[in-house]
Amino acid sequence: MPQDMVDVTRRRLLASGAAVSAAAIAGCIGGGDGDGAEQFHFTQEQSREEQFDPVISNDAYSFQVIQLVFDGLYEYNDGLELQPKLATGEPTVERDGTRYIFELVEGATFHNGDEVTAADVAHSFTAPVEEETENAAEYDMIENTEVIDDYQLQVDLGDEPYGPFELATMGVTVVPESVRTDDPEAFNRDPVGSGPFEFADFQDNEYVELERNDDYWDDLEPNLEQVRFVAHDDDAGRISDIRSGDTDAIAGIPNDDWDVLEDEEGVELYSAESPSFMYMAFNCNEGPTANPEVRRAIAHSFSMQDFIESNAGNVASPMYSPVPPVVNDVWGFPEDEYQELLPEYDPDEAQSLLEEHAPDDFEPTIITPEGIRTQLAERIATRLDEIGYGADVQTLDFATLVDTYTSGNEDDYQMYMLGWTGGPDPDFYLYPLFHESQAGVNQGHYYEGSDGFHDDIAEARNSADQDARYDLYEPVIREIVEELPVLPAFTQDNTMAARDYVQGLQAHPEVTRNPTLVAEYTNVSME
């Protein structure tokens, strides 16, 4: 069945930071844990929810731990393409793209020795919906699963295909049904997976320790014996830790610290473009910004390119559509054409349009989370002030921002700053952020669109033909760029820094895959 609702989720809606900062862990870094075992210390960018059941967890930083403990049916490679992991190969597709038959590898085992079976995969697909977890929307297009035998599973989607199924949904993280359902609470805090590392120790708001699974079923054997994750959402603290050698690697390098670390002896930097979309949205429901000419005027009033170069040039790249460049590389939409359609910096044109289409006392309210998006809002306010208008910038905590931007009330805002992250399918951005069913849920711009705009978005997600989906999406993207319900801003990079004795580390486009410590294309070690 079609997916009718997508909830706001932490893995997709990008907050500016977490509320709780974990303490840094002192001790022997990079050399061992006191008993001769080599331990890799990784300092995360933000705090975790400390839930490690993949069926329940919807937090990117908990998933950085989860992805080492569990295997997926398929997993993203370093180019955001799903590759078989617990599956033997590509599925058999039947019934016009609504039935998938998966074959599993034989001999894959969980950490307790139980074999991974089709029943476990079926449970992994259906549990999020049956238990109404935050991940339900990622699987509720599945109508039925049928275990054919221990190594074959049939998945039926109902009457219509689901476009992103082969690019995303098949990458389900597989859990052991019997262990998980026997004691769900214990499983969430001490999970059992089939991955290259096992849970070893865990302290709330302090650290998670993993140890190598020496009986890993796959041919891959991790070089690292132990891994310790520490959450540290203070930028200065993370930078200090890596410079002083108090950690082996960190995630999340602030723009202003990039050059500092680049010149730091003994430190290496890593970066990969992420599938993230930072944007400024306009209230198209009420008030002056419901007029597209006012939206164009605001876009003309400042230079997004100059802002990015001066505030985020080391860790972000400009965007010209709601589809991130790393996703556009897979689909090939005409990004150069979209760039030409976006309003260029032209304060005279901005002033002329506002004089014609906005009230004389126009001073829009911009709501934003803290950080670089506040800086962008303030830049816009400054440029509007220079042409005789201005803006009221309100920096809100993330929970208040979410409650406010979905109202559609012009008294609450005329513009808001947010970010979104997804995967290699345009549906992850176009459906939740632009389809009319998501107004007041994942979006606050309430864009009515042209005839067929919303129908095309829905039709594209219910098609298994990628060429047909491209033809539906391209005019939708073009309309967004021309009518500006949202103004694309930039895509963030996933960045890491490590001491130079760390070998084989790579930044992955998908934040939940960092750090990838063992894969077909890398195996991290410390030398």
UniProtKB/TrEMBL annotation:
Protein name: ABC transporter substrate-binding protein
Keywords: Signal, Transport
Organism the protein comes from: Natronorubrum aibiense
GO cellular component: a single term: periplasmic space
Nucleus keyword on record: no
Residue ranges annotated for the Solute-binding protein family domain, each copy included: 81-439
Family: Belongs to the bacterial solute-binding protein 5 family.
GO terms for MF: peptide transmembrane transporter activity
Domain of life: Archaea
Biological process annotations from GO: peptide transport
Source taxonomy: Archaea, Methanobacteriati, Methanobacteriota, Stenosarchaea group, Halobacteria
Transport recorded as keyword: yes
